[in-house]
What does this fold into?
Amino acid sequence: MREKRLVRREFLRNGAALAGGLTLSAAAPALGQAPAQPPMIKGEREGEIGYGARSKYITSTRIPHGGRHTPDNFGLTFHVASPLQDQVGVITPSSLHYYATTRGSFLPDIDPAKHTLMIHGLVDRPLTFTVDDLKRLPSVTRLHFIECAGNRASRQAKTVQETHGMTSNAEWTGVLLSTLLKECGLKGSAKWFVAEGSEEVKGASSMPVAKAMDDSFVAYGMNGEAVRPQNGFPMRLMVPGFEGILHTKWVQRIKLVGRYYMNYNDYGHLDQDKNEAALSYQIGPKSVITYPSGAQRLPGKGFYEIRGLAWSGGGAIKQVEVSTDGGKKWNKAQFQGTPQRMAHCLFTYGWQWDGNETEIMSRCVDEIGQAQPTREQVAKHLNKTFDETFSVPGNDNSVQPWKIAKDGSVTNGFA
Amino acid sequence: MASRRVLPVAFSLLMSLPVWAQGPYGIGRTPSAEEIRARDISIGPTGEELPQGKGSAKEGALTYRSKGCAGCHGANGTGGAAPILKSKDPTNPNVWARGRILPLRAPFATTVWDYINRGMPLNREGTLTPDEVYGLTAYLLFINGVIPEDQVLDQQNLAAVKMPLGDNYAPLPDWKPRTPRLKGYPY
It folds into this structure.
């Protein structure tokens, strides 16, 4: 009875909304083996009734990428990598989506009521669109990855966040650029378009009109809510499968032009070698094991579900294979869900670790037949010497090996 | 009362416009020519969008100090916390080996003008006058040995400046949807 009275008092204090949970805990002690009641958050942290937060025990965060700290000496954000080793499922939470800017940038604090996208240049009717205008138009909602061209595993990198964290995957909603360009009436002489952001440097890039008309869109939604400021609020350009920098954030202007406009970003993209040039723009087929991955430790031999992500700028992923013996034997991995075009897909492979030292890795093939290579394969194909100085041209889409030691510790196979 | 008389006139005017006056959904606002001019800061390789103005390296050197450029980029384009603006290996016959320095490696001087105009100085972007941007462009091209110190750059001659890179860069990718990135490259 005394217990019951206490429970009743708890009940009154916590409010009727928690009645379901308390009924269970009130019944449990009668069995004599109930787990300890966890502490309750009485009165939620400020703001969390309205907008929820994750558990205080979950502390996974983004980290500055590539040796330049963020904010830098000027207070600019440059490159911040996503903790892929902690990601559960295929969608990167908006708060953990990787974040990068053109040259290092401040975060624009844009009032959506004052923001417009102007489309002009080689069109019959220049037009400006507000966010509300975009929301009236037919929309698309698509899962897409974005990956920074600098997402390259160094020998020094310890975790998958350091080797691969400059890619993320979200559900994006917006209006096809082809829809907007039909509103404006695209002229036949328009071969390229320049997309420009609203950050202080007004980062601008030239892209082919073929991409604009194929699948590019202006997104105002991300993972079920408005695009986050760090990802381009109130609207950003999505150019699925292209290098991250081309997904122009805070997009305010699209100019249709007859030639490559050689903006600052464009000149930075020029190459000496025509193969390197051809391999920029579109991201190649790529995959990586996120569990187990660098700096993790397997507690002992036995069963582990190997999990990882695979994606390609060329389309949907068709096949992923996993090797648990250093690349001698390759085993087909399973997809969790149907792989989408230009989106991360989640793969799994059930593995019995025998406790011996080994190396695990994954490789993939996309729907247009491009295969993820090892660095050695790329060097061989291009007739280049394969050594520590060899760098995969374009975006580095090479296979990432993880070494597993007898004590279960996982380290970068490139180290 | 006036509006009642005007409305039918306005309506008939609207109906008489050709069909191409609006897109399939009729959504979006038409910006004025003035608004487009004000917002269009893209300067292409022909320089057709350049505003009137002029400046030389000597004037640019003064602006470089007075506007605080030297504070971040160093007194003469090197030695600051921000990216260097002058090559450390200026005599290397291979332009690509002289470093990724905008006023040296950009294939067009318009790229330099465009970037200074849109992105500099940090925290005061968009405050430079066209004359100041011409002068700063001239100064940066001069310290990299691209133009002589006394050359005056203006709306007419900027696009004609011969940059060291010329067309010594690989052709741009000819991108097509659902197509491998490079013919014959299996990866």
User: Anything to note?
Assistant: Strands of chain B lie at 54-56, 152-154. Chain B is about 35% helix and 5% strand.
